[in-house]
């Protein structure tokens, strides 16, 4: 891995490096963008306009198809043209897609979901790549502590984002009671406001340092990034297990809203339940750096998968209290601890020049899993109960995790024979 990020440019050594100010700007951008006024109500919004769970699943699949297709180009864009520029594009497209959502006809909805997918692709690896770079400026000359510092800052970023999610999710429920489209209008506004903090991040810090006479070579860049992942069983395994687990968690998060709605909960009540889940994630995210210092990544990731399976098992139980316990504790613990663990280990093993693209492979794998899982989940709920669909999800998660481990072992043996 290149150590260039740990050696600030000469122009920055001349004076004290304002890395705290940069971090505040970066955290401000993330906290503003995490004001997700629509996250707890968009499924209900579409359902109220006559769309079945299967059609909602197809729309979400459109999001992930667009995101999957755009992941590699957006990762190359971030590495070669600028990671800050990538986040600005993310904000602009996020505002635009929300405008299309205000007209809930199928053509506009498909456009909205496609634009949303592309916008999140530009978020992709650029966001974490910038934080990794800023981490190097926080304590230069101490490369051994890079991963530890990053895990702490990444967890802090997630916790700040979770607070914003709690505010946004709770507010979104109440805003939806005032006017159904009001949460979407507010979401478009905050997407534009989130661009302002990015302007305080200097390009010399966020963007790759290329010689001016150098021409970008996207295909060569892609090949180098792909080779880095294929020749590292660790990176390959992390990308696969992350995509599998996160797709499961995201699918459950969205459809459980519909489950609560069908049980008779009002929009404001669902918003509160989702906010409590965010509080649970906040606590487990704060615990993640401590656990990462004391447990190996393999043990911690395995424990997260087990916790996710246990959470799903509890959600199958036909008892509201037990189901809520599984969703708010075990299920949230799994996703909250797994995310910073995977992100830290991926950044530690990624080459700096291709960092954003390698991280985009992870989010791309997540999108690929969602393309398959989300519509199947919606189709299953159209003809079966939640307990049956959750049971099949448990089977898929267990088999996928086992196959990922076997592939990791196979690649390790193959590379060992080549040495």
Automatic annotation (TrEMBL):
A single MF term (Gene Ontology): transmembrane transporter activity
Transmembrane segment boundaries: 82-102, 108-132, 153-176, 182-205, 235-256, 268-292, 299-317, 323-342, 363-382, 388-408
InterPro entries tied to this protein: MFS, MFS_DHA3_Transporter, MFS_trans_sf
Membrane found in the keyword field: yes
Keywords associated with the record: Membrane, Transmembrane, Transmembrane helix
Gene3D superfamilies reported in the protein's UniProt record: MFS general substrate transporter like domains
Keyword Transmembrane carried by entry: yes
Domain of life the protein comes from: Bacteria
PANTHER family according to UniProt: PERMEASE, MAJOR FACILITATOR SUPERFAMILY-RELATED (PTHR23530:SF1), TRANSPORT PROTEIN-RELATED (PTHR23530)
Name used for this protein in its record: Putative MFS-type transporter YxaM
Species for this entry: Dictyobacter alpinus
